[in-house]
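In this section we walk through a basic example: taking a raw amino acid sequence and producing a predicted 3D structure, encoded as discrete structure tokens. The instruction is simple. Fold the sequence below.
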Amino acid sequence: MDELSFRRTIYAEPNTTDPDVIQAAKDDPAKQAFWDEVKAMDAQLAQAMNIPIPENFAEKLILRQGMDEFTQKRQKRPWYVAIAASVAMVVGVSYMTLFAGNSGLVNDVFAHVSHEYMAKELAMSSQTVSQEALNEKMTTFNGTLSEEIGEVVSANYCYLDTIRSLHMIVKGEKGLLSLFVVPQSKSQDLKEEFSNDELVGTSFLLASAKIIIVGNDRDDVAQLQQVAQSSFRF
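The resulting token sequence is shown next.
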């Protein structure tokens, strides 16, 4: 497949399963890198558009109406009342920023581990990813994989929040696991342990990179963590 046809197909459908596209990407690392970038941007757009209806939406609409009325009357307030309100708003925003932590990064991790996203990733991987192929991608993070970490069925670049990372899908004893390689400098606040109703996650630092592992089973996550700690070099 020539370069123009390849790019047209990828732009039209980033998650295509066209055999010709898959083969062209395998034969040309530059095409594979381009495809990874487009898929990552497509995933970001899909996530940005998938905005759930907020809780207490009706109450928030009522609050908005009250705020509109408040805005119309604000010019009639004394200047010192306006200053006090501004100070209160700054304090409130600072509080939310201080305690928000790295929830955005964690939420992005969970989004990439969703069944829908994983299914798309697996559909574009026709075979087990070799250690050599993994090390080619690891050069982006100045790292290497000194030994196998298990059966890696997918490995692609993706974005966690705004952080470019490498997302590997690894077969565990009780299901699929996700392993992310992230630059340490951009993920310093990520907690070592995190979870939601379905998933458990862990993160640990290896020199200049942070490894994040997420799965449904805590034992699988712990086992992959032990292997990864001795297999990655940065």
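Looking at the output, two observations stand out. The chain has two domains: 57-100, 103-233. The two ends are 36 Å apart (CA to CA). In the next section we compare this with other chains.
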